[in-house]
Specification:
The chain is mainly alpha-helical and about 350 residues long. It starts with a helix and ends with a helix. A two-stranded antiparallel ribbon has the order 1-2. It has helices at about 1-40, 45-65, 75-95, 105, 125-145, 155-175, 190-200, 205, 230-240, 255-265, 290-335; strands at about 225, 280-285.
């Protein structure tokens, strides 16, 4: 009875799958005909490609539908058991285990309070790992110490330091490390030419074409508002003077270009162009920093305060003397009355 029911279910499945396959074939031919009618004559190659793809897709579907029916349930279970048994064999070989039936042959004769020990071998995975470490050590020795094809950590460090020094020299050459503390004047023709071009583009509206000064100060005399010299001028160009309308150029010019324009500005010293503005700021001498001017101003302020204090002391002393004289006069008049 069970066999008959099983056969009926198989026939029903086959019938349904056959209908499904026939409907797929009908859809395939119908879609290919529609595509062939709507396609242009020059698209015949695309039509053939489309039909080929559909046919391959249908063949795969039919195989997926009918191939599982070729295997009986018994064959499936036998195949699963074979896979499971082969997996168990590999597992036992990998871990070095033996079946439970053979454990009695592995028992050691000693008995410690009813506790017995099995005489198992070292697991194969441990032996493989141990041998792998030995092979790795041999390869490492040959690679790093015998043939020296690999680099030891010290050699890698020295190579990295050397590469960093080369990169640093390149950055210095390109001006990446130039700042207001280490900038130097350059009278090289290419530097001055570059500085002149930068000046012509960015500085003429405020300082004039020859540095004579328009809105900004005259750049050709020896007087500077924020300090002269290459370092002070570089600092002024870099950070700007926002209070007086001069923007910071460090966001638009790299340090190398700022050095070039500062060198060009310094080359204008003493040119005395026509129509130059009157001097502004303080007289700058080479070697003087802008902080000196500030300290001098502080000194003069201190001198002024000291002189005011001395004058106040003198006035206080005079007042005291006058008070004493008044008191003596009063004492003399009282004595005369008596």
């Amino acid at each position: 009875m069970k066999i008959m029911n099983k056969n009926r279910s198989i026939k029903k499945i086959l019938k349904n799958k056959l209908k499904f396959s026939v409907s797929l074939l009908a859809v395939f031919f119908q879609s290919s005909l529609i595509f062939a009618q709507t396609a242009a004559p020059q698209d015949q190659g695309n039509t053939e490609t489309y039909n080929t793809i559909l046919l391959i897709f249908l063949i795969i579907l039919i195989n997926l539908v009918f191939i599982p029916l070729l295997y009986s349930e018994k064959e499936k279970t036998e195949e699963a058991e074979e896979k499971e048994s082969s997996f168990q064999v590999l597992k036992q070989k990998f871990y070095g285990l033996k079946p439970m039936e053979e454990e009695k042959s592995l028992l050691i004769d000693e008995d410690y309070d009813g506790i017995q020990e099995l005489d198992n071998n070292v697991p194969p995975w441990f032996n493989v790992l141990f041998l792998a470490t030995i092979i790795f050590a041999i390869v490492y020795l040959l690679d790093y110490h015998v043939f020296k094809t690999g680099k030891l950590p010290l050699q890698e460090y020295n190579d990295e330091v050397y590469a960093a020094e080369l990169q640093r020299e390149e950055l210095i050459r390109t001006g990446a490390f130039i700042n207001e503390n280490n900038v130097a004047f350059s009278n090289a023709p290419d530097v001055l030419t570059e500085g002149k071009q930068i000046y012509a583009v960015n500085c003429i509206p405020c300082h004039g074409g020859n540095g004579e000064g328009i809105v900004g100060p005259n750049l050709t005399d020896e007087y500077w508002i924020h300090g002269g010299g290459v370092k002070n001028i570089f600092k002024t160009v870099k950070y700007g003077v926002p209070v007086k309308g001069m923007i910071s150029w460090q966001t638009q010019l790299n340090p190398k270009k700022m050095q070039a324009v500062v060198s060009y500005v310094m080359s204008l010293q003493g040119t005395n162009p026509p129509g130059g503005k009157a001097p502004e700021g303080n007289l700058y001498k080479e070697g003087q920093d802008s902080t000196v001017v500030k300290s001098d101003s502080l000194k003069t302020d201190n001198v002024k305060t000291d002189s005011s204090k001395s004058e106040q002391i003198k006035s206080d002393s005079l007042k005291k003397n006058n008070n004493k004289e008044v008191k003596t006069d009063k004492s003399d008049t009282t004595s005369m009355k008596k």
